[in-house]
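Q: A reviewer asked whether we had any structural model of the full assembly, not just the individual parts. We don't, so I'm hoping you can provide one. Inputs are below.
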Amino acid sequence: MAIISHPVDQAPPRPSRSAVLWQFCRQNPLGAAGGFVVIVMIFMAAFADLVTIHDPTRNNFGAMLEAPGREYWLGTDQFGRDLYTRIVYGARTALMVGFISAFIGGTLGLVLGVASAYFGGRFDLMLQGVMDVLMAFPLIILALAVVAIFGTGTANVIIAITIPFIPRCARVVRSSALAVRETPYIDAARACGFSHARIVMRHMVPNVFAPYLVVMTAAVGQAILLEASLSFLGLGVQEPVPAWGLMLRGGAQEYAESAPWVAIYPGIAISLAVFGFNLFGDALRDWLDPKMKV
Amino acid sequence: MKTSNWKSTLSVLAGVVAVSAWTLPAQAESPKKGGVLKFVVPDEPPSFDGHKETTFALIHPIAPFYSTLIRANPEDPAKNEFVCDLCTEMPKAADGGKTFTFKIRKGVKFHDGTPLTAKDVHTSFQRIIFPPQGISSARKEQFGMVESVTLADDETVVFKLKYPSGAFIPALANPFNFVYAKAKLDADPRWHEKNVMGSGPFVFDSREAGALVRGKRNPNYYHEGKPYLDGFEAIFAKTQPLRVQAIRGDQAAAEFRGLPPKSRDDLVAALGKDITVQEMDWNCVLLVTPNSKKKPFDDVRVRRALTLSVDRWGGSRDLSKIAVVRAVGGLVFPGHALATPKEELEKLAGYWPDINKSRAEAKRLLKEAGHPDLKFTLSNRGVDQPYTIVGTWLIDQWKQVGITVDQKVEATGPFYASLDSGNFDVTMDFNCQSIVNPLSDTSKFLPNDGAQYGKFEDPELNKMYEAMNRTGDEAEQKKLMRAYEKRVLDEQAYNHITLWWYRIIAHRSYMKGWKITPSHYLNQDLSVVWIDK
Amino acid sequence: MYIYVFKRVLLMIPTLFGAAVLVFLLMRLIPGDICVLRLASGGGGVDPQVLRNCRAEIGTDQPMAVQFLRFIKGLVTFDFGKSMWTGRPIVEEVGLRFQLSLQVAIMATITAVLLAIPLGIISAVKQNTWIDYVVRAFSIAGVAVPSFWLGILIILGILITSKAWFGMPWMPPITYVPIWVDPIHNLSMLIWPALATGYRYSAVATRMTRSAMLEVLREDYVRTARAKGVFQKLVVRRHALRNALLPVITIIGIEFAFLMGGLVVTEQVFNLNGLGKLFVESVSNQDYNMTQALVMLVVAIFAFTNLTIDILYAWLDPRIRYN
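A: Here is a predicted structure for the entire assembly that you could use as a starting point for your response.
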């Protein structure tokens, strides 16, 4: 009798990183497109000086409201500043605000959500109550109140955007964490006498990582939009710092008819950025856990 | 025929010819009665009390409801002369220029039918000049020269001054000095904050919170034949592009503050002869005020460097395309007799014709003062035209001498609060007056003036200002004004004038009779406006 | 059922109270004094006595605890007091603006529902086909495109098209008239912000409808129906749709509540005299009473909408009641 040895105790070969990436792209073409947009944006923002020729804040009234052409690829605004350059530098502002707010908001939300789910009981109830109250405020209203207290400017905008995100992220993480908490191995870990910290860090957090990531990518898109809205209202980043929402406030409505590029391109930039992050986030969610409800 | 008869007949004939020549053009366009004028107002006033408020947002919708004692001539409002509204004739100063006696018109009625007498005028001005406890009067300081207001009889009000002052009559003509009914004031001294009852060309009809104010024609108006309109609608529209679109789409006929040049061009391009443009220099100027109490702005070299780095002549050419600013000038309204001529102006810091030389000097001063890489925050008001636009321009100008500035922008309320508290490095500031009256308009630059935010001491300036106001001789006034200006702008650089505003009013051509003035507070009672449709 | 409703109503109270505390604190954290803002806004000093009178009149000279108690008492008795900025009763100031915001919210909801439900169903039924991708891209664009930018483009579009078609530029009316007074004036003004907002709103709802439908289509009973040979459309309509609608209604409800105060930027673009604009003004004027009243209004709407949805859920799905 032939003994056919099956190498059963050998784990199947792990797919290489590029293979995983390729699989992701094939299964989620939209998400891949989104991811591509995001990467291009990050690259351009990081190497802004390399991809632009003009100065983003120098006034040049000789070239006021020029149409897109060879020298000014997307045209100029009413101060004679090159629109393309300002959009690229504006990406810096948008990404900075977006990432920082989403990261801090998301992480604080993660901590609170996990703690809430883990400790349960009255702590959970109280935290839930506070989160409910914060969530009942429309995003922009809470942001406005924070700006009124701290003032305008980039740093304060980040604070203003982070605060409304915390309860929303906490809510999402909490529902995933609740599911994790019910699993037997958490009970087993408690029975083993592991400390709270260890259980939370070692068991709960890794298992809610997927929804955390997804909610954070969604938050970046939201943050960029919120920053644009605040700047548009004049309550966010101030001139002469380039920022997309500020560019739309600056002269968009006034010059929209005779110089439409001033109104169109910053808006496209915002839409593309949020689009990219949302598509990518959606695909990420579908890929990580198709049954997960966010 | 006797010579005198011959001469008098000739003069009468000449007079008739002159009068008809003068009135003939007016007769070619005789005002039509009827129609409701709709116009947009950039802001909404917090209350309806003219004595309390200072914003143009009160004048535009509410001034048509009230009468004042004297006013700018509605037929020629840009001219610096005042005519009677409620009085019978402009009085001559008596008693060495210290007493003014006004006789009040007979037959004036308030909108509720009660007669208006000198008692109402007297009580109203008592309220303005000597406000009772708890009543806020924003123009109290302007009447500092008034000793008393008395009621001589039922038709006469007498103003007694402490000393003769050329600033009294202009202060009296301020469009905010509404005449209220004594009966209403006695019943509730703050009644007029939320209610409107006057004797003006229009009667209050309705108000929609945040949206509009409506008025309808006063059939018993004491100026015969007026007003021509049946009514008006003042619509509050806070964003500028929307105001322009409203005029474009004929949702409104006009906006009485001022539009930037680009909007004017768009409207003209879109509407052609359906749009009429009136423009002139505006009695408003933006200035930069460093906080002289805060280092390093206590050093005059740093202050001078700030003003030397700004290219005003270039800015005038460039910014006038996108903002409501234009003329380069000193402390005095450009074109006024007391204004500094160009050759003299070019000697002051910040006005040198060679900007490179000016900036080199600025850099040298900064280095000498020990601040070659100066960094500070500019406090600004969150109104685009022209505050933030001028702010952006200034920051670019300062960048060219190596100064790094970021902007802190606040809404109007918190902006003033910051000004008062002195909580700023350098701030944008402004000097907006109604009637062009340089002698009192320049009081702002005094160190202890209520509207001076520079936080500095300088008794020399007070002396100069006092001397300027006391002398009656024009040549002497000019000399003193020149010296005053030099000290403020050049030697000490306490406040830096940027550019004088330029008022552009683009209105629908069917709105006639309205004439532009250097101030968006003047001539807004709409009594001479008519619609040609 | 009634016990469930009662319990849910009780649960609303801590949320409302929490919101009251939060807004009270937030407002008082804003630096500045409304009396100074109000009286010194011309630039120039203010008489200290006048300031004192102003503060006494609006109550800011009282200690915090007293102010807070007054506020709570006002809420409970539905006496919202007077605006600190204009001195007029808040109910009067809010009245017209509430009407406008409500109408825009309703119109946006209708637009959203008309767009979202058919699109979501098609997308789910034709999952992973090109139709699905187009719909998904369309709905993600709705969430990505800033609504104020969309508003600017719409206005620009109206200007250009009206000029091209009629030779004369046409602008929507800028004054609000209630719909029963002049429906054409009213609709021609509010349709545009409703569209701009509705598109964004529909994006969220489309995604929800799609994923809810997908869930339901995978259910056993649907497969059974299909196996039995029941016509595809009937399956969708009768079985899937009804069950898919529940989460959709949730989303619509929650978003609606946010429309009532969150349209700050859209109102700015279209010059709508609504709650959002009032909110921004009252915050920058530091009008505590008004801001507090507005926030409580928005939070109350949110809480009541949630309550209604929960009750609807409980009524439709008895399992929930016994939780």
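A: Points you may want to mention in the reply: The radius of gyration of chain C is 24 Å. Chain C touches chain B through 49 residues (CB under 8 Å).
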